[in-house]
Amino acid sequence: MISYILWDANPEIFTIPEIAGYGPFPVRWYGLLFAAGFLIGQQVMIHVFKKEKKPLEDIDALTLYMVISTVLGARIGHFLFYQPEILFKNPLEVILPPYAGLASHGAIIGIITGLLLYARSRKTTGQTFLWVSDRIVIVVALAGSFIRFGNLMNSEIVGRPTDVPWGFIFMQNTEFKQIPRHPAQLYESISCLVLFFVLLALWNRYKERTPRGLLVGVFFVWVFTLRFLYEFLKENQEAFEANYALNMGQILSIPAVLLGLYFIWQSRQNVLKKTA
Predict the structure, then answer these.
(1) Which among 24, 173, 187, 267 counts the fewest CB atoms within 10 Å?
(2) Residues 150, 152, 157, 160: what is their CA dihedral angle, to the nearest 10 degrees?
(3) What is its main location (predicted)?
(4) At what angle do helices 104-120 and 58-82 cross, to 10 degrees?
């Protein structure tokens, strides 16, 4: 007996009617989950700052840096990695709506850039780049879980055909033949949620004694090793990827995993130096 799940979720929650000639404006699950990642993440960072006695007034600035750097990085990354011809012909596409197309690898590059800029003006409070990075990856993991669930609600980034009993038929997706497919978005969402609790537990164990770079390293290795593997279960996002042995997501994940291993090794070296 063949079993599967019919996934027919409406990506829109409700629609705000036209007001003074503007609209209507659809409110989508993806946008709500994207915003929720930042809002809940801000509360987690407030908890971290209180426990480690860092200035709470810096939270708003950190949140602003993260919102801007994440969105810009994800948009630029999408066009740079998947549609470079549009980026160079019409760079305004990056900031103009609709914001269709966000690349997680680009978001990570944007977040790193934002944290470097933030940390430059916060050194006197002990908020070095690695200190803030080790804490921010906790909420980035949570936000990643929300965003991937938003992809599921949009019936996008679908998996390859499968005969597993939990295969999804994405009724709202007209691009691919409606047959059971891996719910790859759900795999990644659950993986990021588990990572959030792992990183939070590690920080809760060490707090201010957390080895510099440890949580960043665990984040990179976990997320991008699984991303590399999950890509084998997903349809390619762009047609050109069919010509490669590895798709773009996998190619970009390799240096990210190596960087994560370096951070873990470096954090271990720093611990050994302190105990020597």
Answers:
(1) 24
(2) 160
(3) membrane
(4) 140
Give tens-digit pLDDT for 166-197: 999 999 988 887 899 999 999 999 999 999 99
**Three-state secondary structure along 87-147?**
HHHCHHHHCCCCCCCCCHHHHHHHHHHHHHHHHHCCHHHCCCHHHHHHHHHHHHHHHHHHH
Q: Is residue 271 part of a domain?
A: yes
Q: Indicate whether 171 belongs to any domain.
A: yes
- Is 241 within a domain? no
Token pair of 217, please?
């390293």
Tell me which residue range forms the domain holding 174.
Answer: 5-236+246-275
| pTM for the structure as a whole | 0.88
Counted domains in the chain:
1
Tokens coding 33: 């989950």
Asked if residue 63 belongs to a domain, the reply is yes
- Please indicate if the annotation marks 148 as binding a ligand: yes
